[in-house]
Amino acid sequence: MATLSFAGVEKRYGVVQVLHRVDLEVADGEFIVLVGPSGCGKSTLLRCIAGLEEITGGELRIDGRRVNDVAPRDRDVAMVFQSYALYPHMTVRENMGFALSLQKHPETVPRVEAAAAMLGLSHLLDRFPRELSGGQRQRVAMGRAIVRRPKVFLFDEPLSNLDASLRNQVRVELRRQHAALRTTTVYVTHDQTEALTLADRIVVLNGGVVQQVGTPDELYFEPRNRFVAGFIGSPGMNFLERLEDHVVGVRPNDVVLGAGPHEAEVEVVEKLGFESMIHLRLGEEALVARVEGATPTGRVRLDFARAYRFDRATGERRG
Amino acid sequence: MSLALLLGLLGQAQAGEVTLWHAWRGDERLALDTLVEQYNAAHPGTTIRPVFVPYEALSSKIEAAVPRGNGPDLFVYAHEKVADWTDEKFILPVELPADGLHPVTVDALRLREQVWGWPLAYKSLALYYNRALVPTPPATTDALLATAEALHGPDRWGFAWEASSAYANAPWMHGFGGGVFDTDGAVRLDSPGNVAAFRFVQTLAALGPAEPSGALLTQLFNEGSVAMIANGPSFLGEVGAVDFGVAPLPTVSATGRAAAPYITVDALFLAREGAEARAFADWMVADEAAEVRHRVGKQMVANTRVEVTDPRLVAFRQQLDTAVPMPTRPEMAQTWEPLARAMRRLVRGAITPEEAASEAAFQYTIVSRPSPPAADPRPWVVAAGLGLVAAAVWLAREVRGAPIARWRFAFAWVAPAFSAMTLLVVLPFVVGAAVSLFEYDQQAWTFVGLANFLDILLARDFPLTSPLSFWSTLAVTIAWTVANVVLHVGIGVALAMLLREPWVRLRGVFRALLILPWAVPSYITALIWKGMFHRQFGAINGLLALVGVEPVSWFAHWSTAFAANVTTNTWLGFPFMMVVTLGALQAIPRDLEEAAEVDGASGWQRFHLVTLPLLKPALLPAVILGSVWTFNMFNVIYLVSGGEPDGGTDILISQAYRWAFTRGHRYGYAAAYAVLIFGVLVLYGRVANRFASRKVV
Q1: Nearest Cα to B204, choosing from B140, B258, B247, B248?
Q2: Using CB atoms, which residue from A78, A79, A89 is nearest to B696?
Q3: B contacts of A81 (beta carbons < 8 Å)
Q4: Do B629 and B483 sit in the same domain of this protein?
Q5: Is residue B692 situated within a structural domain?
Q6: Where are the beta strands (DSSP E) in A207-254?
Q7: Rg (CA), chain B
Q8: 3-state SS of chain B: helix, strand, coil percent to 5?
């Protein structure tokens, strides 16, 4: 259990700067998700917390202690890798107990068994990683972190190697674990759905710069700039360049069909069962509407239930 | 088979054609070709056909071809094989012209009242001296000692010779009234004369450079660091810009006798009767041809009527008057190693002259011990026959019902590799194994059954702790293998880990540089290290001197000699382990080590709990391979320590070599060694494989 504090954290590789002045306070027990496109620096930030990368500027504190120069092994953080990084020559039991057995911890056995029971791995304890399915391996990796009862959990895209249905299942599981353990968690993903469903707060990163920090609702309903607005929410926000001076952003479910000041042409209808995606052409611009029930054809009138306005040059929110 | 074909072609003779095998090169060959051309032109009915055969191959070719009738009519060889060849009736007695040939050269070829070849040329040691340092060469050993003492300085010496060589010390042995044989013709290495000679050798060697080898002598003489050396006529071509003279070796002051070196006589031997061959040989030793051989071929010819004008060559002619023909008796071959071994210790100061003499005599009794009694081969033949039948039956049962016809093509594809393996691996192995059941003596093979194995395994001829015993050599071999493999793996893995570190710059360059020792042929590396370990001129003692360490006599003690061998072989061996490790490391994700790092493992824990277990599957086969190579690493042992001190650092394979080639051709005994080595390695391979096949990942 711990707080995390970033003060102007920077990371450079030679002349390439991958993190620009990151400031962030993470409360004790909070579940923080770092999200952003590939190469935005989110994994680097996570590895800086673990100590696998040295930070080149600013200050990082775990539970108030400055850890800039502290070795990974002395930071008391646990990390779940995208590849799981299970030790192939050790059984599940040895994998999960590895960190504690290094300390010759007296509770190694009971803790491993408790974690295995919690994760449904009890019957697999004497198997080797090569004898497990992808989902089982993922749980072992989580178990290895849980057993340690660290100050901070770090997850590096832990679900990206699972198939879609398993991913949903594990996502719920993760949320449940966190509710039970209340360990401060930093979770990296490029998938905004994961971010929205898991996070207490989300950090959106782009090009090594923090775009916005907020709860899922804040990010969804009050994006600070065009990048956040476009990145959060699925399908993504429509941006209409020619309607006004500012860029107008409309979420597909805020497009109301049937009446209104604008007229558009239906180009394609994607039926998704309960709802449908209507691809429209408004003047020269494309627009997606998400509707339930009957789908229109031909020309339709439409209105926006809610619209955002962004500065054409800077992308900052203007209204 | 191809050898037989080749021999057939070489030996094919037509009427009037005389085939002549020789190993002469350079000027000597030029002289021969000139003479043959001249002779063929002058004798229309005769064609002399000279065939060059490399020296290393010449004697074995003769021994293989002559008895089968495929040999030459004439061949040129050194006289030392005369006894062997007359016993085998390879060569025929000859009539020499009444005068003109130096009697010593004729004596060399005389056996049982007959002469067995035409003496062509001779060589022996003589005294080379640097005129700038020694205006007149010493005529007596006292004068030699005085000069050596007077000229001895920090980096200069008065006299040097190959003090540990039995050949180079023969002049002193003869001069002091000793020698290899006593007056009855029996080998006697511990005679009073030899003891006196050894005392002189010890005194003289103390005034010379350490560990003088042939190459070192050449270098030191050419640098002017050594004023006088004893060397043969071939050294004439190696002298650099030194103003030098050559004189006969001095007279021994204590006895008044000349220090008589061995002479070796190159002679023409007659392998097949023929008037043309005899006529040509007579002509070759006669004045005209001898003149050409001397002028063109730069030979010291046996014909005394050839006028020698170069004063340096005159010295060799004078030396001939006192020289002793190299004995041709078969016992001679077994005296070299015992003498050399005693002399090495003597020169090093490890033993007294008396001890050296008795040591030599004792070693000689070991290497010349009588052959084991002949055994009855019949049970063996029966057993081998039964074994073959059993194998055939087993094979028949294995293939019964198998659709061989359908696999015709498969067999065809495999056939080339299969026949090559059979010819190159299986057959030699079977022959080698069979040889171990025989004893070879005086050209004769005697079936002795398991006597060789029993002699070796029961250490019948020498104490268990003697360096000559199988078991102590096995212990040394195992220590050698373990020390090497531990170092190879340790250094190889450490360097591979280091090369992976991101902070190491120029990784590619280092990787290439570190693989380099592997790319250099091992004997070259071994010779370089041998030079670096030289007591006086070696780089290692040079570096040690910088930090104030006294020069170490690396090959005088077991531990330092062993360390020198291990160092050399480690230099040769670590790159392989490094390359294997580098490859295996590629397959280990960095994640695993990072996970361990976050899990709280220290650097060492990460290595031995995570990285090393994952390297094991790749390293184990490499370790097995490396240990087999090391177990049989002949080059390093032979070239670096040469088994010194006293054969203590010899390993099984070098011991086997010595029994086969430097201790009187005990081929059967050596083959038994080889079979035992094979057995040890098969056993090791089986045990190691069991470890390696345990699934780790």
Answers
A1: B140
A2: A89
A3: 591, 594-595
A4: yes
A5: no
A6: 209-214, 238-240, 247-250
A7: 30
A8: 60, 10, 30
Residue among A71, A75, A83 minimizing CB distance to B591: A83
Query: In which residue are the tokens 């309607």 written?
Result: A243
Amino acid B68: pLDDT: 83
d(Cα B203, Cα B183) in Å, to the nearest integer?
27
Interchain CB contact of B503 with A (< 8 Å): no
- Claim to verify: residue B44 and residue B90 sit in the same structural domain: yes
Which strand ranges, in their side-by-side order, compose the sheet holding A255-271? A285-292, A275-282, A255-271, A299-304
- Residue ranges of chain A with pLDDT lower than 50? none
What's the pLDDT at B13? 47
Degrees, nearest 5: CA angle B618-B624-B629:
125
Confidence at residue B581, expressed as pLDDT on a 0 to 100 scale: 92
* Residues B453, B321 share a domain: no
- According to the model, what pLDDT value does residue B2 have? 47
Asked whether the bond before A235 is cis by omega within 30 degrees of 0, the reply is: yes
Residues B500 and B564 in one domain: yes
Pick out chain B residues at pLDDT < 70. 1-15, 442-443, 664, 694-697
Same domain, B167 and B74: no
Q: Are residues B494 and B510 in the same domain?
A: yes
Question: Chain A: residue nearest B593 by CA?
Answer: A85
Residue B78 has which token pair? 């050194």
Q: Is the residue at B689 inside a domain?
A: no
Using a CB–CB cutoff of 8 Å, tell me whether A52 touches chain B: yes
For strands B74-78 and B110-111, give the pairing. Answer: unpaired
Q: Which residues of B touch A79 (CB under 8 A)?
A: 594-595, 598
The CATH class for the domain spanning A4-227 reads: alpha beta
Say how far apart CA B140 and CA A199 lie, in whole Å. 105
**Cα B97 from chain centre:** 38
CB-based contacts of B148: which residues, under 8 Å, 6+ apart? B157, B158, B159, B204, B207, B208, B228
Nearest CB to B589: which of A52, A83, A89? A83
A153 contacts in chain B (CB < 8 Å): none
**How many domains, in total, are found in chain B?**
4
Q: Chain B: residue nearest A97 by CA?
A: B599
CA distance A217 to chain B (A): 33
The pLDDT value recorded for residue B697 is 46
Residues in B touching A130 (Cβ below 8 Å):
697
Q: Is residue B362 part of a domain?
A: yes
Nearest to A79 among B589, B598, B697 (CB): B598
Q: Touching check for B598 and chain A: CB below 8 Å?
A: yes
B601 close to A (CB below 8 A): yes
Note the pLDDT of residue B14: 55
* Residue B80: domain span: 2-123+264-327
The two three-digit tokens of residue A275, written as one number: 């709802």
**CATH code of the domain containing B552:** 1.10.3720.10
Where are chain A's structural domains? 4-227, 236-310
> Which of the listed CATH numbers 2.40.50.140, 3.30.450.20, 3.40.50.300, 3.30.70.100 matches domain A236-310?
2.40.50.140
* Contact assignment for A98 to B602 by CB distance below 8 Å: no
In chain A, whose CA is at the least distance from the CA of B615? A89
Question: Which residues have a Cβ under 8 Å from the Cβ of A200 and sit 6 or more positions away?
Answer: A30, A31, A32, A215
The CA distance from A242 to A258, in Å, is 22
Query: What is the DSSP track for B154-172?
Result: TTBEEEE--TT-HHHHHHH
Cβ-proximal residues to A177 (8 Å cutoff; 6+ apart), any chain: A118, A142, A146
Alpha helices in A224-288 (DSSP H): 226-231
> Does residue B160 form part of some domain?
yes
- Nearest-Cα residue of chain A relative to residue B596: A99
Decide if B238 touches A, using CB distance below 8 A. Answer: no
Closest among B166, B130, B348 to B239, alpha carbons compared: B130
Residues of A in contact with B589 (CB under 8 A): 83, 85
